[in-house]
C-alpha cells in the first residue's frame, strides 16, 4: 500500500465517483466526525458522485439518503441501495439475489454462535435490517477478539450462508451478492458507468475485511490507517492508505485528493 500522498494529479482528475465505508472509515469510536462529514460536503460540492457503501441497515440508509450530502447509499453489504431523486423522492432497489432475514438457516447460525460465544449479541440496529443478521462482537461491550469473529464466520459458512467481518459486526445473509455487486449495478444503472473503462473513475475508502471486494476491484481504492488491524485477513489490499485512523483518515484522503485536482 502506498501513502495517499502518492496519488497523482492525473489519477485524481480522472475520478467521478467517491465511495466509502461508514463504520471506522467515516466514524471514530462510533461517532461521525466533523472532519469526515465536512469532507463529504467538500467532495459533493466539487462535483463528485458521493456514495457510502456500508453494512449498516436499510433503516439507516433511508436516513442517510435523505439527509447526508450523498447521491445514494448501498446498504446491508450490497442487499439494497437507496437514493433520492429530484423533488425529495426516495427510491430503493433490492439486489435480485437478496433473501429476507427470517430464513431458518440464519436462525440456526444465530443459535450456534450464541451457544459458542456467550458474550455475543445481535446488533442494536437489527430491528432496521431486511436481509441480513448482524452479530455484534465489537460495537458495544463486551468486545470479543477478532478470532471470535472469524469463528462465527466459519459457523455461518458451515451452514451455507455468506458472512463478512466488519470492524464491529459479523454480517450474515443468504443470497449471492456483496458490496461490490450492488455498487456496480447502481453505478451502471443510475449514472451510466462502464465497467473496465470506468474502473479508474472510482475511489473507494474502507477499513476492514468486508471491504475487500472493493479493494480488489478498483485500482484507486484506499484505506484509513486502522486497516492495519486486519491486514492479515485481507488478501487484496487497497492501493493507498492514509496516515490517520477512521474519520480523520478519510478527511486526509479527501483533502489530498481535492488538492491534486486543483
Top keywords for this entry?
single chain; 262 residues; alpha/beta; Rossmann fold; Hypothetical Protein Ta0175, Chain: A, domain 2; six-stranded parallel beta sheet; four-stranded antiparallel beta sheet; globular
What does this structure look like?
The protein is α/β, with parallel strands linked by helices. It folds into 2 domains: 2-96 and 177-260, Rossmann fold (3-Layer(aba) Sandwich); 104-173, Hypothetical Protein Ta0175, Chain: A, domain 2 (Alpha-Beta Complex), CATH 3.90.1070.10. It is 33% helix and 21% strand. It is built from 8 helices and 15 strands. Strands 1-15-14-13-2-5 form a 6-stranded parallel β-sheet, covered by helices on one side. Strands 9-10-12-11 form a 4-stranded antiparallel β-sheet, with helices on one face. Helix 2 (34-45) packs parallel to helix 8 (246-260). The longest helix is centred in the last third of the chain and has 15 residues, at 246-260. It is globular, with a radius of gyration of 18 Å. The mean pLDDT is 97.
Amino acid at each position: 500500500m502506498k501513502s495517499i500522498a502518492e496519488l497523482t494529479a492525473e489519477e485524481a482528475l480522472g475520478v467521478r465517483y467517491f465511495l466509502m465505508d461508514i463504520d471506522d472509515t467515516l466514524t471514530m469510536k462510533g461517532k461521525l466526525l466533523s472532519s469526515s462529514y465536512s469532507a463529504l460536503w467538500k467532495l459533493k460540492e466539487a462535483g463528485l458522485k458521493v456514495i457510502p457503501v456500508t453494512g449498516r441497515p436499510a433503516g439507516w440508509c433511508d436516513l442517510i439518503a435523505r439527509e447526508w450530502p450523498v447521491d445514494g447509499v448501498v446498504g446491508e453489504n450490497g442487499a439494497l441501495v437507496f437514493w433520492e431523486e429530484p423533488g425529495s423522492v426516495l427510491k430503493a432497489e433490492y439486489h435480485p439475489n437478496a433473501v429476507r432475514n427470517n430464513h431458518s438457516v440464519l436462525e440456526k447460525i444465530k443459535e450456534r454462535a450464541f451457544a459458542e460465544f456467550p458474550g455475543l449479541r445481535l446488533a442494536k440496529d437489527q430491528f432496521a435490517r431486511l436481509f441480513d443478521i448482524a452479530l455484534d462482537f465489537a460495537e458495544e461491550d463486551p468486545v470479543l477478539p477478532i478470532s471470535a469473529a472469524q469463528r462465527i464466520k466459519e459457523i455461518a459458512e458451515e451452514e451455507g450462508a455468506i458472512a463478512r467481518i466488519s470492524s464491529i459486526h459479523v454480517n450474515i445473509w443468504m443470497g449471492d451478492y456483496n458490496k461490490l455487486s450492488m455498487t456496480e449495478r447502481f453505478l451502471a444503472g443510475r449514472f451510466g458507468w462502464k465497467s473496465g473503462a470506468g474502473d479508474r473513475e472510482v475511489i473507494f475508502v474502507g477499513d476492514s475485511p468486508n471491504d475487500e471486494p472493493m479493494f480488489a476491484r478498483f485500482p484507486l481504492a484506499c484505506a484509513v490507517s486502522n486497516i492495519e488491524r486486519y491486514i492479515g485477513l485481507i488478501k487484496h489490499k487497497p492501493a493507498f492508505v492514509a496516515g490517520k485512523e477512521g474519520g480523520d483518515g478519510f478527511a486526509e484522503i479527501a483533502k489530498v485528493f481535492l488538492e491534486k485536482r486543483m
